[in-house]
Structures are given as C-alpha cells and as structure tokens.
Design brief:
Layout (H helix, E strand, L loop, with lengths): L1 H18 L10 E5 L5 E2 L5 E6 L9 E5 L8 E7 L2 E6 L6 E10 L5 E10 L39 H26 L1
Parallel strand pairs: 2-8
Antiparallel strand pairs: 1-3, 3-6, 4-7, 5-6, 7-8
C-alpha cells in the first residue's frame, strides 16, 4: 500500500511539473520595441529594434517596415543579436504612419508573427510626397516571402490547445494508472 501511495504522489508531482511552464511549450513573443507600439515620434528613427522573450534565430528573423500605402521602407538588415533583432533604415523616414511587421521562430520551432504601428510627426520635416510621386522601395525577396501581418494581440503564447490537450491526456492516463493500482490492492 505504501508503494502505491508513493507512486501516486510521484505521478501527481510529474504531471504538475509538466503543466506549469514547460519550456518546450513556450512560444517567443515581443517584449519591447523601439519605436514603441503606437508611438508618435517627434523625430524619425534610424531603425527598429525588437526584443523578444527568447533568443532570436538570425536565419529565421524577418523584420520589415511599410508606409501607409503598404510600400516597404528601404532598409539594411535585419540582424539578430541575442534576444534582439534590428533593422536600419537606408533613408530618413518622412512624416506618416508606418507598420512594423516581424516573424521569429520559437525554441520549439513554432513561428510567431506580429505587427504594430508607429507615427513620425516631425514638425521640422517636409510633408511626405504624394503616393504617385514616390517609387516603391527595392526589395530583395519576392512579395510572397513577406511576413503576414498579424495583430500583435494574436501572438501565440503559452502551450496552446494542443499542449493543453496533451496535458489533459497525461493527467487522465496517470489517474487511470493510479485507479488500477488502488483497485488491485483492495
């Protein structure tokens, strides 16, 4: 009877440990951004720096910035260093609203996408040229390879439904095993 209780206690502890923040289920997420989300800047930034929860894979990092007309801003990069990814603009941004779009891959291999906006409102800068007068920024990747725009609130975080389903399955299996052991002893 004592062995059964020890087995039951060990099983409960194992299930609890598996369900309380297993790193394999953790998805990467944006923790800080410069320029910040929804910021209105009095001076155009020289680039974008994004900081994430986990280390950034340089081969999987994608960052792009587009103007209100969805034309990509000319930039060099992106580059990754530790938990951060940066993109440096080739030219000074004109006044207007811009969308930063990013894609990183979590340690568990799950891609995480997101986007946010910021506005440049430099009183000393000239107003942006009309959309017809501008030429699109050159891109090195085909349009199909551009990251999808997903609201930042839609970022994956936590284990998701598959992780929870696996956790419930483990709990049910452990409970069934403990029940069988108790029934044999009685």
């Amino acid at each position: 009877m004592r062995i059964t209780r020890l087995l039951a206690a060990a099983s409960v502890a194992a299930v609890f440990a598996a369900l309380t923040g297993s790193p394999a289920w953790a998805h990467n997420s944006l923790t800080d951004a410069s320029p910040a989300k929804n910021a209105t800047l009095k001076k155009a930034p020289g680039g974008v720096k994004l900081t994430f929860l986990q280390r950034v894979d340089p081969d999987a990092l994608e960052i792009s910035v587009a103007d209100l007309a969805k034309r990509e801003v000319a930039a060099s990069g992106p580059t990754a260093s530790g938990k951060s990814g940066t993109l440096t603009f080739d030219d000074t941004l004109a006044n207007g609203t811009y969308t930063v779009t990013y894609r990183v891959v979590s340690l568990d291999g799950h891609p995480v996408r997101g986007s946010y906006k910021f506005t440049v409102a430099d009183a000393s800068a000239t107003t942006p040229a009309s959309p017809a007068a501008r030429t699109p920024a050159p891109t090195t990747a085909p349009a199909a390879a551009a990251p999808a725009t997903v609201p930042a609130s839609a970022e994956a975080s936590g284990p998701g439904w598959l992780g929870w389903a696996a956790g419930v399955g483990v709990i049910l299996l452990v409970a069934a095993g403990v029940f069988v052991l108790f029934r044999r002893r009685v």
